[in-house]
Design a protein that fits this description.
By secondary structure, this protein is mainly beta. The protein folds into three domains: 3-135, TolA/TonB C-terminal domain, CATH 3.30.2420; 143-240, Beta Complex (Ferric Hydroxamate Uptake Protein, Chain A, domain 1), CATH 2.170.130; 241-776, TonB-dependent receptor, beta-barrel domain (Maltoporin, Chain A, Beta Barrel), CATH 2.40.170.20. Helices cover 7% and strands 55% of the residues. It is built from eight helices and 51 strands. The chain has a 22-stranded antiparallel beta barrel. Strands 16-21-22-19-20 form a five-stranded mixed sheet. A four-stranded antiparallel sheet has the order 5-1-15-12. It starts with a strand and ends with a strand.
Length: 777
Amino acid sequence: MFAASLASSGAHVASAEAPDDQAHARASLTPPRMITGGVVPYPMGAAGTATVIVELVVDPLGAVSDVRLVLGAPPFTHATMSAAWHWRFEPALRGDEPIAARVRVRVDFVPPEVTVPAPVSEEVVPVVTEVTVKGRRADPGQTTLGGGEVRQIPGAFGDAFRAVDALPGVIPMASGLPYYFIRGAPPGDTGTFIDGVRVPLLFHAAVGPSVIHPSLIDHVDFFPGGAPAEYGRFAGGILAASLPDPSSTAHAEGSVRVFDAGALAESPFADSRGSALVAGRYSYAGAILSLTSPLKLAYWDYQARATWKLDDADDIGVFAFGSYDDFAQIVSGVTDTIIDATFHRLDLRYDHRTKHGRLRVAATLGYARSNDNHNDIRDLTGGVRATYEERLTPAATLRAGADVTFDRYDLLGNTISSPYLAAETNILYPPHLDSAVGGYADVVWQLAPRVQLVPGVRVDVFTSHRYDNLAGELASIGMPLPVETTSVLPAIDPRLSARVAVSPDVSIVSTVGVAHQPAAYVVPIPGLTAVEPFPSLQTAFQLSEGVVLSLPGDLTFQATAFLHEYLNLTDLTATCPSVFGSGVLLGNAPNIMNNLCVVETVRGQAFGAELSLKRSFTKRLGGWISYTLSRSTREASAPDYSGATVTIPSDFDRTNVLSAVLSYDLGAGWRAGARFVTYTGLPYTSTRDYVPVAPWNGARMPAFYRVDVRLEKRWRLGERATLSLVLEGMNVTLDKEVLGEHCAPARGQGPSALDACTPQTLGPITVPSIGVEGFFR
């Protein structure tokens, strides 16, 4: 699948043969000028080039208030009209007064990497607006979230990454926590990238915003499984964010909310040969929380980018980003650290454009560090990567690449007083050097006008070298076992995806693949990676089959069935029963270092179906409904300590997950939206006289639901500035979620009665926000 991206462009008055009085009248009028485009997806199952002309009504605020088709044929017309609602313009002016105007826009759908000027037809005065149409290929099984529609999702607070939990296949660990089980894989098995660079921590303070300024994200591509060969080394889903192209005009924006403030500014220089961008965010929520709760909270982040055009085919650039988090609770004057983490990334890149493709060579340096009450862990990382894409023929495009990464991990401090627990910490987190060397290649092959195949393969070699001999540590806790000092683990990941257009409105989408990943902690923490005494690779076999329907009313329906098998899965929710077993809350559980369950592995499976019905948020009335029916299981030791291996529902299995989002443009700069989320409660094992009773994880905690809302009012200030007031709230109904059950024998019920259980609730986790956002373009 391709996509057409409408970039910012200028407008100029063409020569017009008209009477002098008409010329005088036109001189007082300024036509609309497009300033932001968006993404126009190339329709699934379509082939060849096409032209679509739409007539837009651009209101005095520069927003599109009406779209009418002038010329074109489906399915290209549907793609263009859906995207047109997202386009932004400098409004037409009569003198200095903004006015509404009609304008016609022509969009040419062309193969990838071909840039074609597309004129806008004349309106009140003869004008030509140059619109650049770029190809961007979307893979089968991919879902793309753009910045414009993400802003309209209540409870996401403008963050594309937080909006992912509204998609099918995404199972939250708990409401408000942006850590997800994706098709049964733990959060630590989800790979997150921004412009090709891995992100070690995606969200501030566990429940906060993402560590990347929202306006720095052009779009996020989400793969719940069967990702292209480019994305390897993760056994779960993939979130890949892309930066917008450097702007040809200066622009800035800022926001002030209840809990933080942020800003972004970008400007070209040297006649647009260069571009510089800076962005960041700072939280003052700690001062507010200290007045009402025993919590300590501080976070900030930064991003910077600079590019320089060497010539028409070559660019160089640098991209840097980082963040800091300090989240703790104060009990009886003692600070109990929940997370104290920081990381920095510096990416240097060289880009070369060929006639039908592109090449990028980049080098990345990084630093990450995490602290808790007892441990101080650091990671120094470096890597080099190269990616190459070339259209070999009109029907085939080659994508290939290679990279090498190094991570040096050190346990800088260990203040645990217990010699036993200190020894276990040294075993799990010894000083070690990890490396990964790999390469990939796939071909996007338009086998027939209605058949697209993407065969590919990825090859990786994972190496880990421990600098400490752990035999002494193991002997100190009664485990005198040999330990591998150096391990070398190869992996081959074949991938295949396909899209078959049964008709212009019906497509079949299939994906199958294998993915490997070293051991991972259950949630991503900067600098933290547990080391297995006997290393193995997590292995995922991923299979999905779906259908996509284009329906009347600009609706799109998608249904997907999936089956994922996992081997050697490092999921401590299954291997550390003292933490999660029988529905025990994590916050009330014993220290997980009571044994080495963190690096024990299990076999798992996830299967089910995902349904979604969507109407673009760029419409006046837009939204979606997504529903996931799934079952996630683990092969684990029986809770009765019999030693038997049994297959039970995962401790974070949620059979039903429903999310409904609606957003409506009320007119006059007002837009309102609401989201309803509900899902099945977590499983737990019933007990009799405190002894677990089969079926294991056969009981369920109560279901949970929440409501999020968003209301925005936008004003236009002059020609290039807008101001918005945003009222947003997550879980405005203040619902508490049951994440545990405390079970004890009930008196007078007889020896055969099950223990009575009392729900253990969390929350309510709610985030109210009042914010002011300003934009200057």
